[in-house]
């Protein structure tokens, strides 16, 4: 095995060890505060516990970011984050290609906006350590039902919406950033073909999740952050990041004031549903074009670097 591959794997194992030990260290404190919050039925006390949990989570992410820069040596070039404020409420929407997306988002938004809360599939609550950490931090766990399941058990229809609505009501006390990967799953060319997606680099967006957040918390939300993540070398695996093989990430953030977002009852008004879906589809079309332009610029820059400049 070539020496550079051995060194990359050693770096990957060391980076993974740092991520693991950092997670275990902070989770001890997270679990202790979360248990206190659970057993003491005093609203003011629980609110203070939520603030402490966010404080601990921010420190957890700070060490992860340090690990990414020092060991993985990945360059993240982000635009559009200068005017963000940690005291605002944000709905963050992004394309999704890799598990690395989450670390990238936590990196660029660290201390610039409130701690990111992700929608998590209910099955992931059983993931060792992390599942309990997400529960402690009030991440909303949602369960999606297939059309076949709903046909057999119609009483389940709307239950995922109600779970999401209850989760959002927890976020009304302290500033929060709610993260939604609108495609619902990671992009792959095979999924794109299966969906017959009209976009070159994206899957079809699912509008219900962000519509529900806006319906529940729209009055508090400051703006939507439309995030576009581009990997010039192609979508990486998590191990690629750990081993230092992910050289560069390009991120574009566009802030959309909440008053510029269509408002209405997405679930009971068919006309508004069509308007909102068209608005999200237009957002996705712009995102797809942005990805294509960024990839072309990166390819042109790489091609130019391959040729010596004329004297």
Question: How would you describe what is shown here?
Answer:
The protein has 311 residues and is α/β, with parallel strands linked by helices. The chain has a single domain (74-305), classed as Glycerol-3-phosphate (1)-acyltransferase, CATH 3.40.1130. The protein has 10 helices and 8 strands. It has helices spanning 3-39, 43-72, 100-108, 130-136, 147-152, 159-169, 189-195, 208-217, 238-242, 270-305; strands spanning 75-79, 90-94, 116-118, 120-121, 141-142, 177-181, 223-230, 248-257. The strands form 2 sheets. A 6-stranded mixed beta sheet has the order 1-8-7-2-6-3, sandwiched between helices. Helix 4 (130-136) links the parallel strand 4 and strand 5. The radius of gyration is 21 Å and the shape is globular. The chain starts with a helix and ends in a 6-residue tail after the last helix.
Q: H/E order of the elements?
A: HHEEHEEHEHHEHHEHEH
Task: Supply the CATH class.
Answer: Alpha Beta
Radius of gyration: 21 Å
Summarize the biggest pleated sheet.
6 strands, mixed
Helix content: 40-55%
Helix count equals 10
Count of domains: 1
Strand line-up in the sheet with most strands: 1-8-7-2-6-3
Instruction: Briefly note the CATH topology name.
Output: Glycerol-3-phosphate (1)-acyltransferase
Mean pLDDT: 87
Strand content: 5-15%
Low-confidence stretches: none
Structural class: alpha/beta
CATH architecture: 3-Layer(aba) Sandwich
**Overall shape:** globular
Quantity of strands, as a count: 8
Descriptors:
two-stranded parallel sheet; 51% helix; globular
